[in-house]
Design goal:
elongated
Amino acid sequence: MPQSPSKRLGIETGDAVLHHELLEEQAASLGRQGARLERALAALRAHQGEGRGTVLAAAADAAWCFFVQREVMGLRDRAAVIAQYEIPREVLVRIGAR
């Protein structure tokens, strides 16, 4: 398939620039959600006793948001994420993950 004149000349079209910016924003958003999940899981690990349900709910919400963000990007392997972030079963049960 022949390249377009803009590709041969090394000129970025508006579509290519927009696509690149969208990918950058998706990556940044996923990074923010991952950091939120890490903070929520750290808080859960540190919190024992009174009020744990609230911290557990926050961790479950952060995990759910992270999974949704990944799925929007076409990344559907939850097992790898669960292992990498060491998401406890009690969090997964709250969001209905199997």
